[in-house]
Design a protein that fits this description.
single chain; 326 residues; alpha+beta; Rieske Iron-sulfur Protein; Naphthalene 1,2-dioxygenase Alpha Subunit, Chain A, domain 1; 2 domains; seven-stranded antiparallel β-sheet; four-stranded antiparallel β-sheet; 4 helices; binds FE2/S2 (inorganic) cluster; binds fe (ii) ion; 2Fe-2S; iron-sulfur; lipid metabolism
Length: 326
């Protein structure tokens, strides 16, 4: 693999995919992990294999109250990962390895740090839990998060691949693990909403997450857009797109207004997700077959890519810095 796994926050699921009592399987960085939520609502992401004799907890494991119970010998683990109950006897001092997990805007992220380093920042600039995905889409790519996120500073491909005119407004601003990108774009939503011109920003939050806001002036609505690239295996990336809105839980507005704005934001959210999914499909044709180019020959108009390549180095251990980022 020409690029190692980067440190950062990576999406494993939307919150609604893991309701109370659920046990859900995912691949993450070449291994199996299990997400579960207790009856009391506590979310955990753990190593898929039981520390007793290695059974797969996502293959028959169940939530019992606040415990996750292994299907093989019914060892029960609490939310700290400790084995607290075994049938007929004292529990051994077995511990189930856990990942650091966050839920933001009803999206579930886990942290990956090199040498088990703790989180160095928080996952998203859309922290408010009143926001929830109104629409989402995902696909599996033969690519790496660094390659996917690079497309947001690659302005030259926009008119060619997407037939979209997108211009850099100011150079990217490096804020440690965040990279602020601002551009103007004319986007045509794939419903009868007219072409909208957005002058906007996108914030890369490590290599797993990009978020921003899109304002639809015609309908006076702002939608949050979250693009998430999760490395599931070597050169395999699960790409998710979600449009989040707050209308769904704006409890203080009159009922009818709430219902109307909910359906409008759902329609707009779905249109925006369709538009982004269409563009990502166009990118995927390139991403799935391209190779990583460690020493790109950039034109003077592509300085944002050079800046991006320097910024990404912080997400890899120094001895594994990808070439071409100096
Ligand atoms: S392997 Fe899980 S309880 Fe034995
Ligand atoms: Fe693109």
């Amino acid at each position: 693999m020409p690029l190692p796994y980067p440190s950062g926050w990576f999406c494993l699921a939307l919150s609604r995919e893991v309701p109370a009592g659920a046990v859900v399987n995912r691949r993450f960085m070449g291994r199996d992990v299990v997400l579960y939520r207790t009856r009391g609502g506590v979310l955990r992401v753990v190593d898929a294999h039981c520390p007793h004799l290695g059974a797969h907890l996502g293959a028959g494991g169940v939530v019992d109250g606040e415990h996750l119970v292994c299907p093989f010998h019914r060892f029960a683990f609490d939310v700290e990962g400790s084995c607290v109950k075994v049938p007929g006897g004292a529990p051994p001092r077995a511990t189930l390895a856990q990942f650091t997990v966050r839920e933001r805007s009803k999206i579930i992220y886990v942290w990956h740090g090199h040498d088990a380093a703790p989180p160095a920042w928080e996952p998203s600039e859309l922290p408010d839990d009143r926001f929830a995905p109104a629409a989402s889409w995902s696909t599996l790519l033969a690519s790496h998060p660094q390659e996917v996120m690079e497309s947001f500073v690659d302005y030259q491909h926009q008119p060619i691949v997407h037939n979209v005119s997108l211009h850099e407004v100011t150079p990217p601003v490096d804020e440690g693990p965040l990279l602020r990108i601002s551009f103007s774009a004319a986007i045509r939503l794939s419903v009868r909403l007219a072409t909208i011109t957005v002058e906007q920003g996108l914030v890369l939050s490590g290599l797993g997450l990009a978020s921003g806001e899109v304002t639809l002036h015609q309908v006076g609505m702002t939608l949050g857009v979250v693009l998430m690239a999760t490395p599931v295996g070597p050169w395999q990336t699960h790409l998710r797109v979600a449009v989040v809105t707050e209308a769904a839980s704006r409890a203080d507005s009159p009922r009818l207004r709430k219902a109307a704005s909910m359906s409008l934001s759902a329609v707009a959210g779905q249109a925006l997700v369709r538009t982004i999914a269409h563009q990502m499909g166009q990118d995927a044709r390139i991403w799935n077959r391209k190779r990583y180019e460690p020493n790109p020959q950039l034109t003077p108009g592509e300085s944002a890519i050079g800046q991006y390549r320097r910024w990404v180095r912080q997400f890899y251990p120094p001895d594994t810095w990808p070439t071409g980022t100096s």
